[in-house]
Write a structure and sequence with these properties.
This protein starts with a helix and ends in a 5-residue tail after the last strand. It is mostly helical. Strand 1 and strand 2 form a beta hairpin. About 65% of the residues lie in helices and about 10% in strands. A two-stranded antiparallel ribbon has the order 1-2. It folds into two domains: about 50 residues; about 60 residues, Orthogonal Bundle (Arc Repressor Mutant, subunit A).
Length: about 120
């Protein structure tokens, strides 16, 4: 009888050990999946930050025409082209990042002008 009891106890222990491994594997799989989802979410946030908004060629030409012989603020550009100051600022910053315009601070205002190409 003792041999049977021991073998049953051994089987129970093996069963318990097997169950705990399965639970750990499931927990670790779930943890990995959760971490991957979080990383994907973080990557999306980073992509949104670096994603450039494209400006139509028409708008670029209009802004360049306005700034051809003078400097203007985003408010002045917005009024001249009949769109909001914030939209004008967005366009001007994007064009500055592209190297088309140059922004110069004077006091609290930022004046934009066409960037000169030096040879």
């Amino acid at each position: 009888m003792s041999k049977i009891k021991i073998s049953k106890d051994v089987l129970r222990i093996k069963d318990l050990i097997g169950r705990s491994r399965k639970v750990k594997l499931r927990d670790s799989k779930d943890e990995v999946i959760t971490q991957l989802k979080e990383m994907g979410h973080r990557i999306e946030k980073i992509e949104k930050k670096f994603k450039k908004k494209s400006i139509s060629t028409k708008r670029k030409k209009q802004i360049i025409f306005l700034l051809k012989n003078k400097e203007m603020t985003s408010t002045e550009v917005g009024k001249a082209l009949k769109f909001s100051r914030s939209r004008a600022n967005e366009y001007l910053k994007a064009m500055e990042d592209d190297g088309i315009l140059e922004g110069v601070l004077r006091g609290k205002k930022r004046y934009y002008k066409i960037k000169r190409i030096e040879k």
